[in-house]
Structures are given as structure tokens and as C-alpha cells.
Design a protein that fits this description.
- The structure is a single chain.
- With 281 residues, the protein is an alpha/beta fold.
- It has a single domain, classed as Vaccinia Virus protein VP39 (Rossmann fold, 3-Layer(aba) Sandwich), CATH 3.40.50.150.
- The chain is 34% helix and 14% strand.
- Helix 2 runs antiparallel to helix 9.
- The longest helix has 21 residues.
Length: 281
């Protein structure tokens, strides 16, 4: 019988916080992946981005495959049994706990997101193998202390043992004034030696400047706080300072350990997103 944590919506209704007239990145990503948990504003925003960057759906799919391959590597080869997945997004096929628990049923996963529609679907993330456990925290990456001190995290994950911190396709929504490097460092510093960071991040390096500017501008439909902060490889590398980046390094998510993926592979220009996995020494 599946193990479930207490329902995270107790005492409130997440729909009260959902504004269907404003695009949200989690719902837009859901639409790009072919999901149905999105609204017209999300679809319009995604279609506008696709007009500027026609391979954006390829990017979304390749980013999702990167997450699945990274989880597989971390579970099977690195031997991790605990995951902290921040910026979870709306549940779809092969979520972190599903990939990890197929390999190691005792794996424990904590999901974190600040989108009320993700909260509304959180029960789908709270199914687990009998040997493992999952939990969901309604919180923001910009408040790492709330995440780290949350009783659901403390109940599910032992911070004295290695943890895989997953920051997949979320850091580019943090502008420079939020000091995303300090936020990542705060989280990594709270984890013991032998923990890992897996992250992916949008880049402008392979886009013509007009396309990059159009892609950034269209995200503003998601609200005044949402601006896609594409970063260079050098800027993305800074997130892994002090960590041991595993092979093949910081590369396109389409190339990261993708030997078993179907050919032909999309080009780095088609995807325009870096990804990497690194170990805390």
C-alpha cells in the first residue's frame, strides 16, 4: 500500500490563490510538455515564446529527460537515497520519486514549490513505495531557511546523510537582486559531505540576440516578478563553485549522459539550456 503524508491542502483551498488570467511558469511548462493543467494565459504566453524560440517544446522535453537521467545517475551510480526537489512543477510522468524508487524503493523525496496549482495536485507526488516516503512543502526557493526547517522535511529527510538537491529549470527565474548564488550556497551548506547538486539553467549563448530578448520579454506576461534571467556558461558555473562536477561536466541538457537517448539528438542551439550534476566533497 502506498505511503502518503498528510494532505498539504488541509485548512486551505489552493484554488483561492490561483489567478488564471496571469501566466505561471509551472503551468506554462506543463503546457509545453503536452499536459492539461494550464489556462489560456499560460498557453498564450507559451505560444508567444514559441514564436520567438520555435524549439522551446524541445527544450522543455529535453530538460525533463535530463532530470530523469540525473535522478537515475544519482540513485544508481552515486547511491543517493534522499532527494530535495525544489521547483517541482505540476506532476507528470516519471517524477523524481518514481524514477528513484524504481531503482531503490527505500528512497525518500521532499518536493517544494510555491505554485498553488502544484499544491492542488500534490497528492500525486505523495504516493510512494512502501519502503520509501515522499512529502510536499509549499514554499519558495527564495526562503531556504523555511524549507530547511520545515517539519515535513525534517520528518522525511535526514540532513545528517547525503541528499540530492534538485534545482531543475528554476534558477533562471531568479533575477540577480535575489542573489541566487547565495540561495544555492545556503542550501548546499546545509547538506553533508557526499551530497549532490543537480541543476539546469537557460542560456542565451546559442540564441541570436533578438531571439534572446524576445524570449525574455515574453515571460513578463507571468507577472512583474517573472523575468527569465538567461545566464552564460561562466555564470552558471558559479552555482557549482566548491563542488566536484561529474562527467560530462556543464553541458547542454540534451548532451548530459544521453548516450541511450534516441538519435538524432537536438542541437545545443535547439535546446539552449545547460545542465550538470556535482558532488559536495
Amino acid at each position: 500500500m502506498a505511503t502518503e503524508a498528510p494532505h498539504p491542502t488541509a485548512g486551505t483551498h489552493p484554488s483561492d490563490r490561483i489567478d488564471t488570467t496571469v501566466a505561471h511558469p509551472a503551468r506554462r511548462y506543463n503546457y509545453l510538455l503536452g499536459g492539461k493543467d494550464n489556462f489560456q494565459a499560460d498557453r498564450d504566453s507559451a505560444d508567444e515564446m514559441a514564436a520567438a524560440f520555435p524549439t522551446i517544446r524541445t527544450t522543455a522535453l529535453e530538460n525533463r529527460r535530463f532530470l530523469q537521467r540525473a535522478v537515475g545517475y544519482l540513485t544508481r551510480e552515486a547511491g543517493l537515497r534522499q532527494f530535495l526537489d525544489i521547483g517541482t512543477g505540476i506532476p507528470t510522468a516519471d517524477n523524481t520519486h518514481e524514477v528513484a524508487q524504481r531503482i531503490a524503493p527505500q528512497t525518500r523525496v521532499v518536493y517544494v514549490d510555491n505554485d498553488p496549482i502544484v499544491l492542488a495536485h500534490a497528492r500525486a507526488l505523495l504516493t510512494s513505495s512502501p519502503e520509501g516516503a515522499t512529502a510536499y512543502i509549499d514554499a519558495d526557493l527564495r526562503d531556504p531557511e523555511k524549507i530547511l526547517a520545515h517539519p515535513e522535511l525534517r520528518r522525511t529527510i535526514d540532513l545528517g546523510q547525503p541528499v540530492a538537491l534538485m534545482l531543475v529549470a528554476i534558477l533562471h527565474f531568479l533575477p540577480d537582486p535575489d542573489d541566487p548564488y547565495a540561495l544555492v550556497r545556503h542550501l548546499v551548506d546545509a547538506l553533508p559531505s557526499g551530497s549532490y547538486l543537480a541543476a539546469s539553467h537557460a542560456t542565451h549563448e546559442y540564441l541570436p540576440p533578438p531571439v534572446a530578448e524576445k524570449a525574455k520579454a515574453t515571460t513578463r506576461n507571468g507577472g512583474p516578478e517573472e523575468l527569465l534571467r538567461m545566464r552564460s556558461r561562466a555564470e552558471i558555473t558559479r552555482f557549482f563553485d566548491g563542488l566536484e562536477v561529474v562527467e560530462p561536466g556543464i553541458v547542454s541538457v540534451a548532451q548530459w549522459r544521453a548516450e541511450q537517448e534516441a538519435e538524432p539528438r537536438p542541437s545545443v542551439a535547439d535546446v539552449s539550456m545547460y545542465g550538470a550534476v556535482a558532488r559536495k566533497p
